[in-house]
């Protein structure tokens, strides 16, 4: 395919993409396929000779679409949102064409510099303390990670490296392995599975702190565990607070936890993967209070801020903490400016070496929406969640299982877990809408997350009618 | 921006991308900017109100392009290639539109299934042993990682988890920390910096095995270190072999190393990040001999197989090894089919949770080029490297520093390191072509890597004329 054909096929693809997104609600949100469906639809081996583009293109509808879960359908209410916007897609086209690998400043200065400035823009939108901004001479700064899982892992590893150096400075005789064997990290018992997984990867002990009746970690709960652990000779070094947990969008009490972590010299990382986007609205910004105590902070614009995956924004107060943890300097990656202190080589900030020009997506989206447009988008989703909450509350058969703060509603039929499992199964089997469950205090709960950019009040109303209807059917079948 | 405007702007962007790539050689390959150039060109904060697309678009040339290192210019010979092709860009547009997050089968069955089948296609193209293919009931299988760094880390962590379980099965009293403190992993002293970094991340001892005069690890060198380490009570558990090292594209002697690793129950991972693409050609496939001894294998189609970044292909012989290392099953990620044994939940195979629909790129590229087209592409680049090698060899002032096997030529002026450093500085300062150096056996060496899809013989000739001219100037300045 040469540039001339790309001009033609690219324009066709632009129309296909626009058609797909404009008509997405006509597609069944969750596919009917069984495991292994795809293998029999295509050849067992790659073709020897080139095929025509027509043949490839027509297979999108034949092979791919029947097996797609349509995350951008207004009938998709599962997991959390993943962003999708036209400006982000345009920026990604440009990113693909430039196709630079921005591991160092020299590998493509624009790639590094736009990222640093975009993370400052975003940090200012969130009203992050100045410590976290790169500015022109700050000690902090931001970076785009692929996912929140990677951000948590990076923070954990940086904290591990820092505490080891700190202890060895006082006790040069203690080996790294010995120190690591004594370390202990903490998170909420509601934290995302990726936090526990980060502990596994880093070979580190990770404990879950029990939450209160709002699914929030409180200061006294952490303090209690710290005292117990210090008494047995363990070394607490890391706490991952969650703002907006995955099960119920609960918020750890960072204003209580932060001062404890600071006093005890424990690295506090804040994971606000989903909720973070909302903090650009003044009315939700108080949810981030206590950020001033954190060493690192992360959220995913690729969830709820209209920047397509992957774009997970992370800031650190002291970038030397993160860089120092993994710095490697082979000759083939050296460049003239790196010792000047003026440049950022983002390869030291992340697990992979290579990285795409992802900040273009932020730049396009923020400029095309403006801060006001982004705030309006967040508020609309929160409004839709509140609307759904009202519908649930108005129905005596149901209960709300957790405070509705942002775009997630946790609800269930009053009754057994089995009853709710059956209801969810019927909802998903009907294929009209798609939801996933969670467990809260031993209860099986349905999660209704407002996800798609195109979700409107009518979709929420329709979803509720459908759920309510399936619930009626189910309840009628039960013996009284 | 609504769908109607996206149709218009998307088509303009397709033309911009085509124009950029068609005319890329007219742009200066390496930018003139100084660190910090970009910040002053754009506002300090995101706009409150939405801007027009025209304003954003015109800033591409004003703000971004002056700071881009043009990796796809035919005058770019630095690092290793990164792929860029029209079919891959079309597939990425589709990937962005579908915008699913394929962490589990249910999250978008097509995303998981196409990936499994594409990795089988690619495995067959490389003539990998059947053990590595997923087939319909195999124990092995492939996965797309973001980068080779992540693949190495995943392999290392899977090996760590496996050895710990194995030792604890015989000695239930030994703690994980105690076992880990005795473990030792190995790689070539020519291995990529990411291998050493993986050891740092996993908190694992990592040793470098000395290479022979071809920069290759041989069996006896590994055997010697293993004996020494076992004698001091260490537990060897992982060896990362490199096929196509970053400094000089050297090949570890896997046919000698593999049997040793198998006999000693050491996990052998093969990192062929750059060279792997060439193994689709029968004449280069012997370089992969010994793969049958490996537990895991990885290379980057996003380097040299025309699939845009990121697409790092990894295979394991026994997928339970990799899945078992990190499996986490929160309720919100469970789905009906996951216990059936028929589905793959790729989140267990990787560091991040989220993942894009990257296999679309492979599918489009392999079908639009065909195996023959891809082989021709590899052969063309190898031919251009050989052409450059001949030019260097014909000039008595220069020497070739390592065997030219694929698309990389390592060369230098006969003389001091300082002389060569000066030559490289002048080459890069002239901005006509872009190269990076490496160090081989204490010598400062220039690397000429054939990178761009559009590089032709005339560009290589021109590059050589330029280098030769700058060398003449430099040598004339020297006192005799």
Q: What percent strand of chain A?
A: 5-15%
Mean pLDDT of chain A: 95
Determine the CATH topology of the domain at 100-356 in chain A. Aspartate Aminotransferase, domain 2
- Unreliable stretches of chain A (pLDDT < 50, length at least 5) are none
Write the layout of secondary structure elements.
Two copies of one chain form a homodimer.
Chain A: H1 3-22, H2 53-64, H3 86-98, H4 109-125, E1 141-145, H5 148-170, H6 176-182, E2 183-188, H7 193-201, E3 205-209, H8 219-231, E4 235-242, H9 254-263, E5 267-271, E6 296-299, H10 301-304, E7 312-316, H11 319-324, H12 359-393, E8 398-400, E9 408-413, H13 417-430, E10 436-440, E11 443-449, H14 457-477
Parallel strand pairs in A: 2-3, 2-4, 4-5, 5-6
Antiparallel strand pairs in A: 1-7, 6-7, 8-9, 9-11, 10-11
